């Protein structure tokens, strides 16, 4: 738990938001190291302060669960992210867009479904929604730009249902919620839950908002959850997958696939996860998570995998909560209780790897090779100018590039009578600049340096 002074500062920020923005009720929590270290609540739900078990509607945070199901299907080999939607859900005008484009909102699909405003009306079955789609369902060339699409996630929910031969919500419950212990996350509200309200712009009065089962559009925003359950989901997004998803798959979901504000890159989207960059007292953060809104409700969840901290909040109001509220909470925690660096301890390494450490040269450019855990390698330019990448050890004795220019490329250690060199997809790194004793492509001038 946080210190008393930190808890007071966090509660003060929450109280100011609830009072100044006239929010009927709000809950918020901070998660660090997989545990809830602070929970706060303001306002009333049925005359009582909300608790960690009070349900709120989380809106588009639902999309993160649907995306996780799609990635499970991918990891099982049942779908490929480059598959066109029509391979699995035939008969729509969006049959040529890929699953990856739907996940990242780059499919060009229209933002909303055909018919009435889906968030305020009962939903139609999937068959009816699919039959209603026409040429207007495509607004942009697939892959051209980021365009948020609730319809796209309705189609992904149908994809999950067809591949699992069960409703999407059952697949989410059985494969994600139950294994993670999130038993208070449901598609319809259960007591105790907040009622969704609109707050009059010029008077302190409320208007109840409608709540419906949205049928085929439910995968875009149907779920209800609690602060306790969302704290577990925040830990998941930060990296504690609990066996539900491979850590490397989650890392793939957090990679930027599209940028909302290309000129400054503060907001983007991965595969089912919103992304944000934030500069605070704890240093620059790369956040992953999602926001959510439905009539009468707002919610936000952000996690920073770099230090395992996350923030979440939920409120029963249609609008009003300011955009910087969640990062203010993160900043208070970082300023008052910065995390301690992990304690350094020596780690045994194999002699064959130890002999590879130190300087290498790509032509005349010096690089430094360092060892990482689990036989990993880090290759970085000495002067900071050049291509830096990390590499993961593979079973065949090679290394796979994880990031940077060499992401996905293979590093091989080549030993010959003339010495040893590194080969990274035809690029040769030598122990001396243009070492003539190893086979440098193009050869080395016989007269040497002069």
Automatic annotation (TrEMBL):
Domain (Beta-lactamase-related) ranges: 14-326
- Stored Pfam families: Beta-lactamase, DUF7586
Molecular function via GO: hydrolase activity
Which ranges carry the DUF7586 domain?
349-431
InterPro entries from the xrefs?
Answer: AmpC-like, Beta-lactam-related, Beta-lactam/transpept-like, DUF7586
Keywords (alphabetical) are: Hydrolase
Report the SUPFAM superfamilies cross-referenced here: beta-lactamase/transpeptidase-like
Q: What is this protein called?
A: Serine hydrolase
């Amino acid at each position: 738990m946080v210190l008393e002074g930190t808890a007071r500062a966090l509660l003060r920020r929450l109280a100011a938001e609830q009072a100044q923005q006239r929010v009927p009720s709000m809950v918020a929590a901070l998660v660090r190291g997989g545990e809830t270290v602070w929970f706060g609540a303001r306002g009333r739900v049925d005359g009582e302060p909300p608790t960690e078990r009070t349900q709120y509607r989380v809106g588009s945070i639902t999309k993160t669960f649907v995306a996780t199901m799609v990635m499970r299907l991918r990891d099982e080999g049942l779908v490929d992210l480059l598959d066109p939607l029509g391979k699995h859900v035939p008969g729509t005008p969006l049959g040529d867009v890929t699953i990856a484009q739907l996940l990242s909102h780059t499919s060009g699909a229209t933002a909303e479904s055909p018919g009435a405003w889906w968030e305020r009306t009962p939903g139609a079955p999937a068959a009816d929604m699919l039959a209603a789609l026409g040429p207007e369902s495509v607004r942009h060339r697939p892959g051209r730009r980021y365009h948020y699409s609730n319809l796209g996630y309705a189609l992904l929910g149908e994809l999950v249902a067809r591949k699992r031969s069960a409703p999407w919500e059952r697949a989410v419950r059985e494969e994600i919620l139950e294994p993670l212990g999130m038993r208070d996350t449901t598609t319809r509200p259960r007591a105790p839950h907040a009622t969704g309200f609109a707050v009059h712009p010029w008077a302190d009065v409320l208007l109840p908002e409608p709540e419906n089962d949205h049928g085929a559009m439910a995968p875009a925003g149907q779920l209800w959850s609690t602060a306790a359950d969302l704290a577990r989901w925040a830990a998941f997004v930060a990296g504690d997958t609990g066996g539900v998803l491979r850590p490397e798959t989650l890392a793939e979901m957090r990679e930027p696939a599209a940028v909302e504000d290309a000129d400054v890159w503060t907001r983007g989207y991965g595969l089912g996860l919103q992304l944000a960059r934030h500069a605070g007292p704890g240093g620059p953060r790369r956040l992953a998570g999602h926001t959510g809104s439905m009539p009468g409700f707002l919610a936000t969840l952000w996690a920073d995998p770099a230090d395992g901290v996350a923030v979440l909040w939920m409120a029963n109001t249609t609008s009003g909560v300011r955009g910087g509220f969640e990062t203010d909470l993160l900043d208070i925690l970082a300023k008052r209780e910065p995390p301690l660096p992990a304690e350094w301890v020596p780690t045994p390494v194999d002699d064959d790897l130890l002999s590879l450490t130190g300087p290498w040269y790509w032509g005349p450019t010096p690089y430094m090779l360092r060892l990482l855990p689990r036989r990993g390698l880090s290759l970085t330019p000495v002067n900071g100018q050049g291509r830096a990448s990390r590499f993961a050890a593979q079973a065949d004795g090679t290394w796979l590039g994880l990031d940077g220019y060499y992401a996905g490329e293979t590093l091989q250690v080549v030993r010959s009578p003339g010495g040893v060199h590194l080969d990274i997809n035809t690029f040769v790194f030598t122990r001396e600049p243009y070492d003539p004793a190893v086979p440098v492509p193009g050869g080395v001038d016989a007269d040497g340096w002069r």
